[in-house]
Specification:
Structural class of chain B: alpha+beta
Helix content of chain A: 10-25%
Oligomer: heterodimer
Helix content of chain B: 25-40%
Largest sheet of chain A: 7 strands, mixed
CATH class of the largest domain in chain A: Alpha Beta
Largest interface: A-B, 26 and 35 residues
CATH topology of the largest domain in chain A: Metallo-beta-lactamase, Chain A
Order of helices and strands of chain A: EEEEEHEEEEEEHEHEHHEEHEHEHEHE
CATH superfamily of the largest domain in chain B: DNA ligase/mRNA capping enzyme
Strand order of the largest sheet of chain A: 7-8-9-10-11-18-19
Distance between the termini of chain A: 38 Å
Structural class of chain A: alpha/beta
Radius of gyration of chain A: 20 Å
Largest sheet of chain B: 7 strands, mixed
Shape of chain A: globular
Shape of chain B: globular
Number of strands of chain B: 21
Number of helices of chain B: 19
CATH class of the largest domain in chain B: Alpha Beta
Number of helices of chain A: 9
Strand content of chain A: 25-35%
Chain lengths: ~325, ~550
């Protein structure tokens, strides 16, 4: 398959199919609903039902830009210009999927953002055997190791309980779609009273419909945080601290693996849990798919491609620029 | 059965992950109190970043490059990859621990075994063999333990655990009084010994040990003369612009320690020769100054002495140095920290009675009124000194404390509005932030660098500035980012000196950031002629 990389996105030329294009294109596959992947008004959009629904919340219908949305369930296939497209869970956020493209006797897998270990919310990732793999490497250095979902849940819940026992307010920083809901889910399921910031709360119904209910959550009122855990976007930290209450900040993120995240995020508690693959998971992904050819497209691309080459895999880091959307974990936070 | 280093690592991790001092204290005290006696000593020592007991001046001699070499050997990762990882992490011990994940046997390590390992590393003088020993340790122990095992060697935990917290925890764990633990730690400089004595209830029996530096008492700045309470109850001395030093003498043996607890004896043979003549034993607090014709010379002159490895007669002649004594902490077996300033002063004067240059005693007198302060201050400046020190009558020597009983009156030599031209990543907790700023003044259309500053801003400001600087970056060389000259800072400094380091030919002394001037543009900053003017003024 002829793949072309540009700042517009990845183009499968023979099929005229764009993978996570940055601007509107005739046909686009969107791997998940983060705004650095799902953007613009492509004429035809293919994605999982959950992804399309979340996409619509951010890019509402516009009569000037008619679109056709094609929903593809996990494990379902679609014939497309002589190719077979099949979608598989990617574990990154609700609805996130990998795309298998079978064409001309070749199997290509585009992972989008992916997490191999089971997430707190969402379907577990499947390994899809393929010849060529397009893989993200957000955490593609051997320093990145993450907690499992059970360990992360325990850390989140224990920190909240400890703070509440001492009369302090635990505050969890997470970006609006994905992490925020997972933290809220962990807290809610443990019976901890919690208040959720609006930017995160607006996606909670989608998570609850998908079976991840958050009992007893209420909208955040920064004047009324006593006795509750709060889940907020990172930008809210200073506002919370300005209330003069005893606010204890926890940072749940892959970046929390490094001690310097404490100052970067202004947090005292670091919980290294990510919705991306750790370094070991990335290595495992590559080896389990059996891919002989890997394109590494995000994060430490050069370094990670080099590591794969050492292992005898044909790996490249094609020049490719995805938009910087600061809400997502895929973008290193300052 | 020895307690494990693995458990210590968990304890330190918990301390890192809370900002509550009380919780840190609780966790540490619980751990200490459960330790058997032998481990209590080891634990206390490791907590102070001291791997090996009683080594005096000798160090473990293990720096970044040895650690890196051992890590590369143990992980099999290429050195370029190690460098990239280290740049992201900002701390060598942490980088190595993260890289060892999944690559070690994961065996438990007892405190006794850790001590053995440190001793072997200490005893081995050959670098290659140190590397080999370290590699073996890395391959053996748990990565989470590795992080702190190495941090004991590098001597900096950076987890918000000061020695005071450890002393506090020791007191709580042993039931000893905190003040007694602190006192004993100060007297002996040996927390392991203090831990043992605290548990045995024999703290009072620990004797003062000479030739290890006691913590200095520090002064608070008095910004506004109006803030001075009871103006008539203060002793006044000139504040010298030299090197704060602590002299230990005992029957001909002399050591001089600086604020950084460094032994600087070798740089001042002329002063040492004079100190040898002092009777009995003593610990004296004072200042080393370059001195000629009855007045102190600029600090720059004194620096010439420090810069040289070998101090010979011609240098001594060119840069004569004096030691100005101003406090006495110990005399002939008696620790004087808890004696009133008047008593200490009287003993100091009698110790130095009849001695001449290069030794002298700082002149001290009573302040008569608030109004007299201004005139006194000007007098000190005329005498070539930095300002004044006010010491409360009846005050004690509060070791290690920035006390309100000592006040310093000084004013910055000047301030400049400058523009940031480059920024550098900090280290440790500031590893990923741009926290060190190179700044420039205007020279026509050009900007010429004149200094570098890294203190004065809050963490929040540094974060905000980092984002802004990244958005106006021009080029990056490793840790340094060149930026468009847009950000204006007001910097204060203590002097201007000629320097080949910067293109403009001058450098500022102790530049620190006063504030971020968001209201100013680069075109409004100070020019080179202003720097030149300030330099000329310092010569006058």
């Amino acid at each position: 398959m002829d793949l072309q990389y540009s700042s517009d996105g990845i183009h499968v030329r023979e099929l005229d199919l764009w993978l996570d294009p940055q601007i509107s294109k005739p046909t686009a596959w969107i791997s998940h609903a983060h705004s650095d992947h799902a953007r613009g008004y492509s004429k035809t959009l293919i994605g999982t039902p959950a992804t399309l629904e979340l996409y619509r919340m951010r890019w509402p219908e516009d009569s000037d830009q008619p679109q056709r949305l094609i929903a593809l369930e996990y494990e379902q296939s679609l014939d497309w210009h002589g190719a077979k497209l099949t979608c598989y869970p990617a574990g990154h956020i609700l609805g996130a999927a990998q795309l298998l493209v079978e064409f001309g006797g070749q199997r290509l897998v585009y992972t989008g953002d992916i997490k191999l270990k089971a997430p707190l919310c969402g379907a577990a990732t499947e390994i899809v055997p393929c010849d060529r793999l397009i893989l993200e490497s957000t955490f593609g250095l051997p320093i990145y190791h993450f907690l499992s979902r059970d360990e992360a849940r325990d850390e989140i819940v224990n920190f909240a309980r400890e703070c509440l026992e001492e009369g302090a307010t635990p505050a969890f920083l997470g970006y609006p779609l994905g992490r925020g809901q997972e933290v809220a889910y962990a807290l809610g399921q443990a019976g901890i009273p919690l208040a959720v910031h609006g930017a995160i709360a607006k996606f909670l119904p989608d998570y609850e419909r998908a079976g991840y209910s958050v009992p007893g959550w209420e909208p955040l009122d920064s004047k009324q945080v006593q006795g509750k855990a709060v889940v907020v976007v990172p930008g809210m930290r200073r506002l919370l601290e300005a209330t003069g209450k005893d606010i204890r900040i926890a940072y749940v993120s892959g970046w929390a693996r490094l001690d310097n995240a404490r100052l970067r995020a202004g947090a005292e508690k670091l919980i290294p849990y990510s919705d991306h693959c750790s370094y070991a998971e990335l290595i495992e992904m590559v080896s389990a798919t059996g891919a002989r050819h890997v394109d590494v497209i995000h994060g430490y691309t050069e370094a990670f491609a080099g590591i794969l080459r050492e292992r005898g895999i044909h790996a490249e880091a094609p020049a490719y620029a995805r938009s910087r959307a600061s809400e997502e974990e895929g973008v290193a936070q300052e | 059965m020895s307690a494990t280093f693995d458990h210590l690592a968990e304890v330190l991790d918990r301390i890192a992950n809370t900002s509550s001092r009380n919780r840190k204290l609780g966790v540490l005290a619980d751990w200490l109190s459960a330790l058997p006696d032998a481990d209590l000593e080891r634990g206390a020592r490791f907590l102070c970043g001291e791997p090996v007991a009683g080594t005096g001046d000798r160090k473990l001699s293990i720096g970044h490059s040895i650690l890196r070499e051992a890590a590369v050997a143990a992980t099999g990762f290429p050195i370029e990859l190690f460098r990239l990882c280290h740049r992201e992490v900002g701390d060598t011990s942490e980088t190595i621990a993260l890289l060892m994940e999944g690559k070690s046997a994961g065996e438990s390590l007892s405190l006794a075994e850790a001590e053995q390992a440190y001793l072997r590393l200490f005893a081995e003088r050959k670098t290659a063999l140190k590397v080999e020993l370290l590699q073996g340790m890395l391959e053996r122990m748990r990565p989470k333990t590795t992080k702190y095992f190495l941090k004991v060697i590098t001597g900096n935990f950076r987890i918000g655990m000061q020695q005071k917290l450890v002393e506090d925890a020791l007191a709580r764990a042993t039931g000893a009084k905190l003040a007694e633990v602190r006192d004993a730690a100060n007297r002996t400089g040996d927390l392991a010994q203090v831990a043992r004595a605290a548990r045995a209830g024999t703290l009072a029996a620990l004797e003062m040990k000479l030739f290890h530096p006691l913590e200095f008492m520090l002064a608070r700045p008095l910004d506004d003369v109006e803030d001075l309470v009871e103006p008539e109850s203060w002793w006044v001395e000139d504040k010298y612009d030299g090197i704060r030093s602590q002299v230990h003498t005992d029957g001909g043996k002399v050591r001089i320690f600086t604020r950084g607890m460094e032994d600087t004896t070798a740089a001042f043979p002329d002063v040492v020769e004079a100190l040898v003549g002092l009777p009995g034993s003593a610990v004296v607090d004072g200042e080393l100054l370059a001195w000629r014709e009855g007045r102190a010379l600029n600090f720059t002159v004194l620096q010439q002495r420090l810069a040289r490895k070998k101090v010979d007669a011609s240098l001594i002649d060119k840069v004569p140095v004096v030691f100005v004594a101003y406090d006495l902490l110990y005399r002939d077996g008696a620790l004087l920290l808890d004696a009133a300033i008047e008593t200490r002063r009287q003993k100091l004067e009698s110790l130095f009675e009849g001695v001449g240059l290069p030794l002298m005693v700082s002149r001290q007198w009573r302040l008569s009124s608030r109004e007299a302060l201004e005139e006194t201050f000007t007098g000190a400046r005329i005498r070539g000194n930095e300002g004044l020190l006010l010491k409360k009558t009846g005050s004690l020597y509060e070791s290690a404390k920035r006390s309100a009983e000592w006040l310093k009156v000084k004013r910055p030599y000047g301030t400049l509005d400058v523009v940031v031209t480059a920024a550098e990543q900090g280290s440790g907790r500031r590893a990923t932030l741009l926290s060190d700023y190179t700044f420039a003044v205007k020279d026509g259309e050009r900007f010429l660098n004149v200094g570098k500053a890294y203190s004065g801003l809050t963490d929040d400001e540094i974060r905000e500035l980092t984002r802004l600087l990244r958005s106006i970056s021009k080029e990056r060389f490793g840790r340094v980012t060149l930026v468009e000259p847009k950000v204006v800072l007001e910097v204060a400094f203590d002097g201007v000196q000629k320097s080949p380091r910067h293109k403009c030919g001058y450098a500022l002394r102790f530049p620190r950031i006063v504030r971020w001037r968001k209201d100013k543009e680069a075109s409004e900053i100070d020019g080179l002629e202003r720097v030149r003017e300030l330099y000329e003024r310092s010569l006058a």
